[in-house]
């Protein structure tokens, strides 16, 4: 459950689609994953969060895990990955790549 453990994991979700972000939140809650979920809409904002740039990010924690959508505006997931892999501090954070398909099953 989100934010109920005194020492939850910090997860950064980088996802521009509200429905997909809600699906991730629901899955974490349903599976009783104790975490603090931080949400950014694209790679540019996620990098600002990770680098603690800007007033709203000055106290941002380093996440224990990044959940990353590949298809986003401004900076897509591939570009974001390339940027964090250049940074020795950020490159050690595990990243799970998420993506959607337009093909119906």
Overview features:
20% strand; alpha/beta; 105 residues
Describe the 3D structure.
The structure is a single chain. Helices cover 29% and strands 20% of the residues. α1 (18-30) links the parallel β1 and β2 (35-40). The chain has a 4-stranded parallel beta sheet with strand order 2-1-3-4. With 105 residues, it is of the alpha/beta class. The mean pLDDT is 90. It starts with 8 loop residues before the first strand and ends in a 7-residue tail after the last strand. It contains 3 helices and 4 strands. It has one domain (9-98): Rossmann fold (3-Layer(aba) Sandwich), CATH 3.40.50. It is globular and about 35 Å long.
List the helices and strands and how they pair.
Layout: E1 9-14, H1 18-30, E2 35-40, H2 43-50, E3 65-69, H3 77-85, E4 95-98
Parallel strand pairs: 1-2, 1-3, 3-4
Helix pairs in contact: 2-3
């Amino acid at each position: 459950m989100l934010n109920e453990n005194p020492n939850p994991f910090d997860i950064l979700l980088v996802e521009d689609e509200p429905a997909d972000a809600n699906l991730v939140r629901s899955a974490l809650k349903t599976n009783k994953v104790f975490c603090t979920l931080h949400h950014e809409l694209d790679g540019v904002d996620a990098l600002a969060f990770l680098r603690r740039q800007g007033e709203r990010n000055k106290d941002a924690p380093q996440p224990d895990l990044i959940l990353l959508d590949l298809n986003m505006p401004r900076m897509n997931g591939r570009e974001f990955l390339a940027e964090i892999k250049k940074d020795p501090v950020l490159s050690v954070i595990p990243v799970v790549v998420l993506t959607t398909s337009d093909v119906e099953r």
